Design the sequence.
DNA sequence: CATGAATGAGCCTTCATTCAT
DNA sequence: TATGAATGAAGGCTCATTCAT
């Protein structure tokens, strides 16, 4: 009884917050991060400026929330993808499949504009960035797992440690994605990424 | 008499422009790109604000001029470096030497801050960027020359075209440099770049 | 039954009001008056913002209530102090003892920050101030009583009326307290006040 | 030749600055210090907001400039007044004359509202305040000079040091002025100040 | 060529207050 | 009585740009 009415209020608040969040994401994707003002966000969401600050401590807080939330789910998608592959598939093939999946997600789900924001924010090195660079750690683990399997099975031969090797692959996928961002739309992420990894994999594959 | 003064004026004008240019570059390197205001630039150059707009149409115009000029010289440095290597050295070794050189230049001459600007500007995709991405074409040619030599001599075996292969290497060095920018100072560019290219080169080297 | 709940509600309401009142006083003492927002008060009190406006018409209304209540008790403390002194003590000594007591209360109980608020509010001349300046009238009476005794006993000789004389002493103690506020912590209120009053008392003491 | 045109520009700038300064002072006198926004000042001065920040680094900077300038001249007025008194007049009379002068200046030239600001700012203890409290040092010296003369001539007898005594008198005049501020217009500053100082002077005068 | 005063839209943020529940 | 989401005016401040001299 006493819980009911406040609940409705809470729901409304969450709705508003969500609307702000979504509109902000939309605008960020269109115009970048510095270029989107709080004014623009609240206008898009159809609420007052004060309301913004009811729900977010600052514009920066929104950015961080946006990024954290945004990249948060991707890990699981990637992990699920790898887990769904046949257990006994070659590590090389698993990696290439993962690369293809990543390319699909970046291209289809996330989009170039949003990735541009992510890369810009990384360059700015603002607070909360760690979560996004740390986001990599999820990806790291996925790569590491496959690589370890490949090493154990004798598929890969390398003088580098597993950790080092993992880092190089993550660097590579990030680098190609960056290139895609700045060359978009004249750059086929999937095709280029696969070709690139074929070179890398050849480099670490035993003859 | 009437010809003389305008000439002198022109010279003085160039001096002023150069001073603005240099001070701006200095400040860009220290604090990034958005963070440097026109005010800061003119103060550093010791001229008035109006003078700035005598020489540059806008702040953006200065940025573009800066970038174009800035990266312009680097090509030659790289080319000179490769040309100075023994003609008959292995293509792999030439490439690794070039990578080391690039790392040295980025780390020592250019610096992390300036590269952050460059990458940020690339992401923004502003006008004039083409000249900077086109800057890559200089680098492209250098890479392509060495790679071609490696292919002709049978050192490299790849199903990719020379052009494709070149692109992959340039992407790789850019990706690692980006990583260096966002992880600075916890990232040894030279070491990581060399290790990374050893993998790549192994990938394209015939067994 | 129907009488019971409203009663209980009233009690609860008073509790909430008291809590708001106390928390506000605490915060006012810590950070001054403008610097404490309604948000800060309701957060400290653990109630919602709406609740604040159930109990107080406005922030200003709270301030006035706070001041009135706050200084209300001090009179009695001072009066009790003077009453506790030996009936036949010299008026000069009684006054010096009162000054010392006032200094102790300001320094120890009330504190510099709160007095700053009081003085600031007096300067602003907001509504309700009269009650606080009228607070002085309690102090007036205390001073007047002692002074009258001193005159009657021939200890003080002055051409001023008792009322005028009283005012001058109150002005003096207020002036020194103000000085203490603005020089805090580089000002020993008790020491300076006693020295100051020794001059004043010498001025009104018969030779 | 080359100095001429810039001079005219400089004059215009100074004019604008002066206008801002004066309008601000006017508004401060009317409504206090926090209550006057930069918007209000620029509107009164008929210039744009940007112009304000061309001439003053911040609102605080203006306040400080205002106070410094404001009280700056008063010292000299007081000093001139005392210097104009007959060299051989009694120190007591000189002091009373000075008190009367101060009361006249506060009442006639400066006005109650502006003094309220001064006292409020002192309470706030903002930066630059030292100059205003330090303003006292000019007044200090004037008081000290007269007091020293009175001591040397045997007119004053006190166990306090000259410095201490000076401080007490300055405190007293400040205290009375404060009282005037908060009781205005029901308080005759000149009359009260003179009466007050007669007590104080009696207190430090040998019989 | 050089100046620098002036502009004004725009920025992020704060906060006392209202009102439907 | 209590809630808390919503408001919106106001705050101080920044900055690229213009223009008369």
Sequence:
């Amino acid at each position: 009884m006493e819980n009911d009415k406040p609940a409705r209020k809470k729901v409304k608040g969450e709705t508003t917050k969500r609307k702000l969040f979504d509109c902000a994401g939309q605008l960020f994707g269109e115009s970048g991060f510095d270029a989107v003002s709080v004014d623009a966000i609240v206008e898009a969401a159809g609420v007052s400026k004060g309301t913004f600050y009811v729900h977010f401590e600052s514009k920066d807080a929104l950015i961080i929330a946006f990024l954290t939330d945004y990249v948060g789910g991707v890990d699981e998608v990637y992990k699920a993808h790898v887990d769904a592959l046949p257990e006994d598939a070659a590590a090389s093939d698993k990696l290439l499949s993962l690369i293809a999946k990543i390319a699909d997600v970046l291209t289809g789900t996330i989009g170039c504009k949003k990735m541009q924001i992510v890369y810009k924010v990384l360059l700015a090195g603002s607070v909360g960035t760690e979560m996004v660079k740390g986001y990599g750690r999820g990806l790291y683990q996925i790569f590491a797992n496959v690589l370890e399997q490949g090493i154990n099975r004798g598929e890969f031969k390398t003088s580098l440690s597993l950790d080092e090797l993992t880092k190089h692959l993550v660097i590579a996928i990030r680098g190609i994605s960056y290139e895609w961002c700045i060359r978009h739309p004249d750059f086929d992420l999937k095709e280029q990424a696969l070709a690139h990894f074929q070179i890398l994999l050849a480099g670490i594959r035993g003859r």
Q: What stands out?
A: The longest helix of chain D spans residues 4-31. Residues 66-204 of chain D form a domain with the Tetracycline Repressor; domain 2 fold (CATH 1.10.357.10). Residues 5-6, 8-9, 37-39, 49-50, 52-53, 58-59 of chain D lie near DNA strand F (CB under 10 Å from a C1').
